[in-house]
Specification:
single chain; 253 residues; alpha+beta; seven-stranded antiparallel sheet; 7 helices; globular
């Protein structure tokens, strides 16, 4: 009995040691809280020339006119050809990548939302809410919310600067954590996006905040150095963009 008790105590002690949290400094946590993804946009202007590159490498340019969507993800897009001025419809299944520009209306809404939440001042870049840069989309076969039959969609890449290993796509239907504030004053906290579509290797999945811990090993577990520095019991969903950026950097040596 004493031997069993001793073995159980050793097992508990070793488990506790293994699960010990990493304590980060205030400066480290501030850095980890930075939001490095690009802003997600749901509209496209017909004032600027969009570019569509098909899977056969042919390129088409024109003005975005309309599209067909499912849960905000693009199934097809119709553009007015820049030369002929004739409408051309393209199915997502035929497109490799696409570059659109956000409308001024949506950029104004994003800017107002940025200003209305004080949390953004220390975590996000205002310029990403009002960007004039082309917005990249790429073809992916995805099961919406991991429930629907997989289909080809054109999805906005929101980490194009560090997507070599893990690509993150905008979820137009994502909800956000609730912020608190007073009428007429900027809100405090909240505003954290709760879901994205994520691709690693050949797997594309819808990742919700509630499932982050369960999928942590899939995302980062193949890098022991990263897992030691950022174990899943020491980090939060809020840090996702930072973690993917760091994982990419550490894998590149």
């Amino acid at each position: 009995m004493r031997l069993k008790t001793l073995l159980l105590a050793l097992c508990v002690a070793s488990t506790a040691a293994f699960a010990q949290k990493v304590k980060y400094s205030k400066e480290e946590r501030k850095e980890m809280n930075r939001y490095l993804f690009n802003e997600g946009f749901n509209t496209a202007t017909d004032k600027k020339v969009s570019t569509i590159i098909l899977k056969d490498n042919t390129e088409h340019q024109g003005y975005s006119k309309s599209w067909e969507k499912q849960r905000g993800q693009i199934l097809s897009i119709t553009i007015e050809d820049v030369d002929t001025r004739k409408p051309i419809k393209f199915e997502a299944t035929d497109i490799a990548e696409m570059y659109l520009y956000a409308t001024e209306t949506e950029k104004s809404m994003k800017a107002a939302k940025f200003i209305s939440n004080m949390r953004n001042y220390s975590t996000k870049k205002y310029s990403k809410s009002v960007t004039d840069d082309a917005i990249p989309y790429e073809n992916q076969i995805v099961s919406l919310k991991n429930k629907k039959e997989p289909r080809a969609f054109l999805m906005q890449v929101i980490n194009p600067e560090f997507n070599e290993l893990i690509t993150v796509y905008h979820d137009p239907f994502a909800s956000e954590t609730v912020s608190t504030g007073f009428a007429g004053a900027p809100a405090f906290g909240g505003g954290v996006i709760k879901s994205y579509y994520i691709k690693k290797g050949n797997k594309v999945m819808w990742l919700h905040k509630d499932d982050f811990e369960d999928n942590y090993d899939f995302l980062f577990g193949d890098n022991p150095e990263f897992m030691k520095k950022y174990p899943k019991n020491s980090v939060e969903w809020n840090y996702l963009s930072f973690l993917i950026y760091q994982y990419t950097e550490m894998n590149h040596g």
